[in-house]
From TrEMBL:
<protein>
    <submittedName>
        <fullName>Histidine phosphatase family protein</fullName>
        <ecNumber>3.1.3.-</ecNumber>
    </submittedName>
</protein>
<dbReference type="GO" id="GO:0005737">
    <property type="term" value="C:cytoplasm"/>
</dbReference>
<dbReference type="InterPro" id="IPR050275">
    <property type="entry name" value="PGM_Phosphatase"/>
</dbReference>
<dbReference type="InterPro" id="IPR013078">
    <property type="entry name" value="His_Pase_superF_clade-1"/>
</dbReference>
<dbReference type="InterPro" id="IPR029033">
    <property type="entry name" value="His_PPase_superfam"/>
</dbReference>
<dbReference type="Pfam" id="PF00300">
    <property type="entry name" value="His_Phos_1"/>
</dbReference>
<keyword id="KW-0378">Hydrolase</keyword>
<dbReference type="GO" id="GO:0016791">
    <property type="term" value="F:phosphatase activity"/>
</dbReference>
Length: 205
């Protein structure tokens, strides 16, 4: 059965340490480019039969997809459904846990089950589920790589495994340039594996 491998983008150049969300100008750092190459090398070395590459429209995802596309001689297909989750903190400094004690954050944090500070988990799950299922249907004779972002990938895995979407972000198993793999049965993604081909590359602090 062909698989859909959802690849998280690589490390991003973000010297001001803001939550970049869907902001368009954020690109991969040199480390992120090395991670993307490592992911492509891993797919080649493991004999993964990649015959289609899909990416979020954001620059960092397109750049991560480029080495995979080059390695397999493919054109990148852009899919808006695998974009980063919407977040009201976009463009602001990355909040520290203590920052959430300030009253200005309370309205945003009123419902962590939804979540109230951004795109609802159920909407992320629905769009990722559809994108993964369509990727399998559109490419039945080979594997597809989709380049996306940490939260949508984690929500897609929770959806496939029947887990609760409510979670501690620090617990996500979705490292930079990791591969979260699915098979699709009767239109429904099923989680089948996780790999970290860029784990050996040190992330700048």
């Amino acid at each position: 059965m062909p698989r859909v491998h959802v690849l998280r983008h690589g490390h991003v150049h973000n010297p001001d340490k803001v939550l970049y969300g869907r902001l368009p100008e954020f690109r991969l750092s040199d480390t992120g480019e090395a991670m993307a190459r490592a992911a492509a090398d891993h797919l080649v070395a493991t004999g993964t039969p990649v015959t289609r590459i899909v990416a979020s429209p954001l620059l960092r995802a397109q750049q991560t997809a480029a080495p995979v596309a080059a390695a397999f001689g493919l054109e990148i297909v852009t899919d808006e459904r695998v974009i980063e989750a919407g977040n009201q903190y976009q463009g602001e400094p990355i909040p520290r846990p203590i920052d959430f004690l300030h009253p200005k954050h309370w309205w945003r944090l009123r419902n962590p089950w939804r979540p109230s500070w951004g795109e609802p988990y159920v909407e992320q799950a629905a769009r990722m589920r559809a994108a993964i299922a369509d990727a399998a249907a559109d490419n039945p004779d080979g594997d597809t790589v989709i380049v996306s972002h940490q939260l949508p990938i984690w929500v897609a895995r929770c959806d496939a495994e029947g887990r609760s979407f409510l979670h501690d972000p620090r617990s996500r198993e979705c490292a930079l340039c990791s591969l979260t793999s699915f098979e699709v049965e009767d239109g429904r993604p099923r989680f089948v594996g996780y790999a970290t081909p860029a784990a050996h590359i040190e992330v700048p602090r």
